[in-house]
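User: Can you predict the 3D structure for this chain?
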Amino acid sequence: MTRADCIRELLAEYGNQRARNELELDERIAEAGAKDPEILRLREENTHLAFDTMKRIMATGDPEACRAMAEDMKRRGQFNNAEIRRRLRQLGLPEDYLELRYRCGICKDTGYVGDAPSRFCECFERALRVRQYEDGSMAGTDEQCFANFDLGRFPEEGGQRAQMKNLRRFCEEYADAFPNTVLPNLILCGGTGVGKTFLLNCIYERVVSRGQSAIRVTAFRMFEAMRRQHFSDGSSELDFDQLLSVPLLLIDDLGSEPMMRNITVEYLFTLLNERIAARRHTVIATNLSEEDLRRVYGERVSSRLLDRSRCAVMKLEGKDLRRL
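Assistant: Here is the predicted structure, written as structure tokens:
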């Protein structure tokens, strides 16, 4: 995906976020109005007050009269707003309950800041950097999310459906609790086509939809970031630093990356060690068993991958869904 494609996608997502902000405000207004109808009346009065005052100002050519009408509108509006805030407090609600809420208060979820020519907000630039880590092999989160999780695809034979029901619940609770999970790290291991990547994508979608920061990469893209870090001359931004610092890192298909001497194992150890020390969360999907992880990466890496005091290891068993 090109940078231009990522920008178009993100701008559409920011537009959707603004629509959600408006919908949530409408719901809060309805809730407060149901408890105290006078709040709705005062808000409606403010609306008519502004409209009627503008009509009166446009109908008169007396500057003094226009200033007086504007001052009167301001005074009455301030009085009504103070009364609305008082009534909200009486309901046990915050004074700003009927104001729009934004994920980013700087750009107000537009993605832009500054006067013309405007520029991308830092929140947008950060999301853009994260988006550019992903490659075309990763499914869209509109397809692979908890809302689209169909247990009917999993055969009942051998308990595979019951297993996935439990795993879905566990992963959804992990995503909803983030960053306050019981254990920070999670490994999904099992054979091909049993649902590991789908669960990883579901966690990613739920976490980012809640406004949290996460990076989702394939193991190959992770390796590319390691390789660039190893050979970098310091003249460009280092992708590996983002993998170290992002609050939630999700790595798909660990074990499929190239094994390059002095890079793969060494940098994976650094990545895991730094993230553990900083108490950051990591989710991994892999076809490798615990024994395979120890054999491929050695004791130093596997001891951090499989530390039960920090990591939940979930084993997926069953038939390859792609062959059913």
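The radius of gyration is 26 Å. Residues 188 and 314 are 5 Å apart (CA to CA).
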